[in-house]
Amino acid sequence: MPRHFRMSRASGAQSGFTLLEVMIAVVILSVGLLGMALLQSTSLRAAQTTNERSQATMLVYEMMDMVRTNRRQASQYGLIRENQFFGDGRNGACATGAPVPAQRWAADRNDWVCAVRRAIPDARGRVTVTGAVVPVGPGAATPATIEVRLEWCDPRGGAMSGTPEFAPLFTVGCTGTTNVIVARSGL
Could you please report the per-residue DSSP string of the chain? Predict the structure, then answer.
């Protein structure tokens, strides 16, 4: 056999990896994968919270549009309170004592409460209308304002620090983050 094809083990050179090197590589890879999993779960939580806030904002403005569309019964929308939110929003009886909607405002209330319950199951809302909207006789209407508020507890978030812009009114005992969406406008 020619000389240049012979292998010599006497030189002390190693080939391949030792078990210790493989274990260190596995530990480093594991830490990296755990970090990626934590990043993914945090990102998912943030996306869910953002989705809820976006839906709540759209629902608040939807109710404001309902009131503006039905100005003659605007003061009746002020009867929508947080204790009327129950059920899962899948059937038409989400609002407490929901009458057969003979009046437009009652149908709007039922639809809105059910939409809120479908979008954010723990949310509660309130509509406040101040001032007269429709004049009794000829003349201009008295200026009126409307405030629509949605609140819900997000158990995925930690307790908030500092003073929020809108303090919660009817979401008490929240162990996570209390979300409050409020919109105010003139009619």
Answer: --GGG---STT----S--HHHHHHHHHHHHHHHHHHHHHHHHHHHHHHHHHHHHHHHHHHHHHHHHHHHTGGGHHHHTT--GGGB-S-SSSS--BTT-----SHHHHHHHHHHHHHHHH-TT-EEEEEEES--S-SSSSPPPP-EEEEEEEEEETTSPPP-S--SS--SS--S-SSEEEEEEEEEE-
- Which residue pairs from 136-139 have beta carbons closer than 8 angstroms and sit at least 24 positions apart in sequence? none
Q: Mean pLDDT in each 10-residue stretch from start to end of the chain (187 residues)? A: 54 72 93 94 87 93 90 85 73 56 81 88 89 60 83 75 68 80 87
Residue type, 38: L
